[in-house]
Structure formats: structure tokens, C-alpha cells
Amino acid sequence: MPEGDTVWLTARKLHTALAGRTLTLADLRVPRFATADLTGREVLDVTARGKHLLTRIEGGLTLHSHLRMDGAWRVFATGERWRGGPDHQIRAVLGNAERTAVGYRLPVLELLRTRDEDEAVGHLGPDLLGPDWNPETAVRNLLADPGRPIGEALLDQRNLAGIGNVYKSELAFLARVTPWLPMGDLPPGTPERLVATARRLLESNKDTFDRRTTPNAGSRGGDGRRSPLCPGEQLLFVYGRRGRPCLRCGTAIRKAGQDDRVSYWCPGCQSGPTV
């Protein structure tokens, strides 16, 4: 599932292609909104709210979409051949004289009144990349259920919006605890550092689809030497690295299910319960 930084970058690309321009093509390929006619209206703004995308359109309308596991928006020059999947996977097309945005495999697509956006995103906690970001509120939300495992608490978008499975595992690694450790068992000050790290990582990755959490990943430092923690092109510490050596201690990374998702961790340098 795309995480908050990917959705933020997608929103920026859509905003650049559509905002301030009049729609000459608008096709919503879901039964409920198939007859909606948006042509002739100006796109005012495209913004991300956590993992949600809000495309605001002249006349007080908002097109709300969510990518979930494999949805995607692709932007093409008008007249360019669309590439992103077969036509039957297209759920939305928004085009102007210069650019066309095509939404593939969108599991959530709805047209609502802009004044009613809270019906779609009002349940979300502070957005790690949004103007409403409030670390104190995020920490308070996470600690409201002290018995809840860290991994589950971080993924709950009602606590803070934007963290997905990749960042969940990476944040637990950086905090040196397993994703199954209850929130209330974190040492004093760790919840605040966890939230601050989450914000820093999403901010540093929001301008690229090549997400990384390791320092100097795939590049050389000022002294010309690679970081010993990050040989080669290791962009992530634990996620997707089951069976490979931990970049910190060399222990083989493990993977297990957690709350219908998966978690990766290092049993050598992360303390706390496991499965």
C-alpha cells in the first residue's frame, strides 16, 4: 500500500498537471458517478490528506480517491498513449488541453461536496505531511491504548496519518524495539522520538518514489567511503529483507504476520515480544 510520502508526491504531480486548468475530459468509471459531468469546470487544487487524495473542482465538488494496495494515478501528455494497465482497470480520467490524469485500480473513488470532505477524512489523526501536523496530539493518540502493540498503533490512521507497513517496520527498528511491544512499555521519551522520526523520514522521502531510511544509502559520504551500515544499495533497514543480515548487528532479519499485515524485525537488536 502506498504510504503518506508516496501519496503526497502523487498529489503534487496531479496538482501540477491539473490545477488552474479547465477539464476538457472527465470520465468517472464507477456506476454511482458514471453520469457526472465535470467538463468545463476548473480544477482548483489537488492535496493529500494522509493516504487520501482530494481533487477539488470548481462548483464546490471534491473527487476523493484512495490508492490502497495497488491503485495508481498516472499523468500523460494529452494525446500520449496511456500506460498503467489494461483499460478495464481505469476508474477515472481527468484531462485538459495539456495533460491527462488516469486513475488505475482505484478501490475508493467518490464525488462529494467539498464542504463534506470530513465525511471521508475527518476521522484521520494529525497528518505527518500536512499543515495540521501536531506531534503532541499524535503522541497522545498513540498512548491512549497503552496495551496496543506499536506496529498496530502506528498503522491506525486515526492516531496519525501517513504511516504504512514499510515505515511501521523501519520505525520499530530505529527505536530498537519489536513491533509487538505494547505502546505503554516504551521507555520515557521514546514515543516522542518515534513520532519525530516518523515526521523526519516522510519529509525526507516525499520528493521521490525511491524511499530510503538508511543513511547515505547507495551513495558515498564526504570522505569517499561508504557507510559501514549501508553497503551497496540498501535503502531500508529491515522491510523486505527477510533472511538477510541486519545492517546494524548482522543477525538475519525475520518476518511475521501482524494484524493482517506483515512486520520485519531484527531479533538481535530489537527488544520486546515477538510471535
From TrEMBL:
Residues 237-271 form the FPG-type domain. Its EC number is 4.2.99.18. One of its GO terms (molecular function) is oxidized pyrimidine nucleobase lesion DNA N-glycosylase activity. The keyword Lipid metabolism does not apply. Residues 205-227 are annotated as: Disordered. GO terms for biological process: base-excision repair. InterPro entries: DNA_glyclase_Znf_dom_DNA_BS (IPR015887), FPG_cat (IPR012319), FPG_N (IPR035937), H2TH_FPG (IPR015886), Nei2_N (IPR044090), Ribosomal_uS13-like_H2TH (IPR010979), Znf_DNA_glyclase/AP_lyase (IPR000214), Znf_FPG/IleRS (IPR010663). SMART domains: Fapy_DNA_glyco (SM00898), H2TH (SM01232). Keywords: DNA damage, DNA repair, DNA-binding, Endonuclease, Glycosidase, Hydrolase, Lyase, Metal-binding, Multifunctional enzyme, Nuclease, Zinc, Zinc-finger. Residues 2-79 form the Formamidopyrimidine-DNA glycosylase catalytic domain. CDD domains: AcNei2_N. Its cofactor is Zn(2+). Gene3D superfamilies: 1.10.8.50, MutM-like, N-terminal. It catalyses: 2'-deoxyribonucleotide-(2'-deoxyribose 5'-phosphate)-2'-deoxyribonucleotide-DNA = a 3'-end 2'-deoxyribonucleotide-(2,3-dehydro-2,3-deoxyribose 5'-phosphate)-DNA + a 5'-end 5'-phospho-2'-deoxyribonucleoside-DNA + H(+). Belongs to the FPG family. This is DNA-(apurinic or apyrimidinic site) lyase.
